[in-house]
Design brief:
Elements lengths: L12 H6 L21 E2 L5 H12 L3 E2 L11 H6 L15 H11 L6 E6 L2 E6 L2
Parallel strand pairs: 1-2
Antiparallel strand pairs: 3-4
């Protein structure tokens, strides 16, 4: 006897996702809550998250973009400047700690520090 013996077939990848046809896949995941179409959603993260905002818009969701591109930029210029990738133009954020730091900075809940180097030594200065 092992702990997985009593689990239903939906708990296993092969039985719930790999073997059934795409139309038959269901009951694999049960959301704990729903997101209304008008609920504001933000995205931050890596290259995967950079595409989520566009997908949310394409599906009629309320993706929040805090940094709209200035008028007059071409699509190529907007892409080159990374507008419309994340909800705010921080670039890639790979950890929850980094996201938390950006959020704290945005609400002035922590000091913004900048690394500086002089004479082979590195330190930090306050920006605010």
């Amino acid at each position: 006897m092992h702990p997985y013996q009593q689990l239903p077939p939906r708990a296993f990848w092969r039985a719930s996702v790999a073997e059934p046809s795409i139309e038959a896949i269901g009951d694999v995941w049960q959301p704990k809550f729903t997101i209304d179409q008008d609920a504001p959603l933000i995205t931050a993260g890596s290259c995967f998250a950079a595409r989520i905002g566009r997908a949310l818009l394409d599906h009629g969701m309320n993706w929040y973009d805090a940094e709209l591109p200035p008028p007059g930029l071409s699509d190529q210029q907007r892409r080159a400047r990374h507008y419309r990738e994340f909800s705010f133009r921080t670039g890639n954020i790979y950890t929850a700690s980094a996201l938390k730091q950006w959020i704290f900075w945005s609400f002035a809940r922590s000091e913004v520090l900048r690394p500086v180097s002089a004479r082979g030594r590195t330190g930090w200065i306050r920006l605010n």
